[in-house]
Amino acid sequence: MTTLVEQHRGTCALRAPASGTIRWLAPSVLCGELEIYERGEAVAAVGSAVVTAPERGFIVRVLVSEGCSVEIDREIVLFGIA
Question: Distance between CA 39 and CA 45 in Å, rounded?
């Protein structure tokens, strides 16, 4: 499932596309101490579904820890659009 948001700046919540166990994925780019995700890059996996970055940005706050079970459509992370 692809999560796209038409927003150029600010913060948005990314939601679980399915029910399952969450696994956070590392970005391909590091910018100083900030982990930058490119648009469409995988941020997390929930079961076999993937949560992707809506735009180039970074994780502001993780709302669900690695290995926890989540229900579909639950907010899992606040994502800052760069």
Answer: 16
Q: What is the pTM of this model?
A: 0.82
Helix/strand number for the chain, H first, E second: 0, 9
More confident residue, 1 or 80: 80
Between CA 68 and CA 41 the distance in angstroms is: 22
Tell me the sheet residues that pair with 78. Answer: 13, 61
pLDDT tens for 39-49 read 999 999 999 99
CATH of residue 39: 2.40.50.100
Count structural domains, the chain. 1
Range of the domain at 70: 10-81
> Is 37 inside any structural domain?
yes
> Is 5 within the bounds of a domain?
no
| Contact of 9 with 81, CB cutoff 8 Å | yes
**What's the chain's average pLDDT?**
89
